[in-house]
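Recall that a protein's primary structure is simply its ordered list of amino acids. Everything else, from secondary elements to tertiary packing, is in principle encoded there. The following example makes that idea concrete.
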Amino acid sequence: MSDPLAIVPVRRSRISQQIVVQLCQMIRQGQLRPGDRLPSERELSEQLQVSRASLREALRALEIAGIVASKQGGGTYIREVFDDGILSPLSLVLDASTDLVGNLWEVRSIFEPAVASRAALRAQPDDLTALEQIVEEQRTFLERDMPNDVWLESDRAFHVAVARASRNEVSVRVIRLINELLQDGRRHFATQADRRQRAYIWHREIADWIREGQSQHARDAMLAHLHEVEEVIIGEVIAPVEESATGSADTSLDGGQAGVQATRGG
């Protein structure tokens, strides 16, 4: 007699991932702040229009990631201390065992803003010239229908040039390695005209802050740039949720715009 089949339940949707993304984005945007207590499970599921099971799954993922903490009999709180670069919803929604994109993006969000900050303090004239040449090249690319691989190569060159301006050779090697791993990954994200325009705007701003020696501004601009790209990737990773045959409330999130009212304090 053959062994029984190892049947794995089929997931109808990825609602819990959408919950994770929305809560992370609300923290980034300051709608939820360290120390805030989340509404009760019942209230939060109603506000997000999701099932309590999906909500629990999302909160477990956030707790494992160190973003929220549960207190016995006291609810769930946003942790008081964590680096905003670690707050990577993409890393949380991708299964690290099968896809490195999320983990790589988390590393970029932690690493590259600090590199840009140091570049603003250490860049030499030849570094500034290299950055300016790349950004100007990208400006001309916006006026022409350049192949995707040409744009991506220029994008990678910009981030390497920022690392080189930090005058830390290890930083250059790390950025190159991350670029190679992202390039070789099985996911490929096209760069439409509007995305190229946004990338150019951020690259222009980052290069300007580095040229002006504004360390904190360079860091913040790089982090904002990476967060914006991450949100684009998330939009492609999470498939639209199909309405269930049972008509469960676990089909909404109102396009990711449902509001959450946090309770301030400890």
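The chain has two domains: 15-82, 90-237. DSSP finds ten helices and two strands in the chain.
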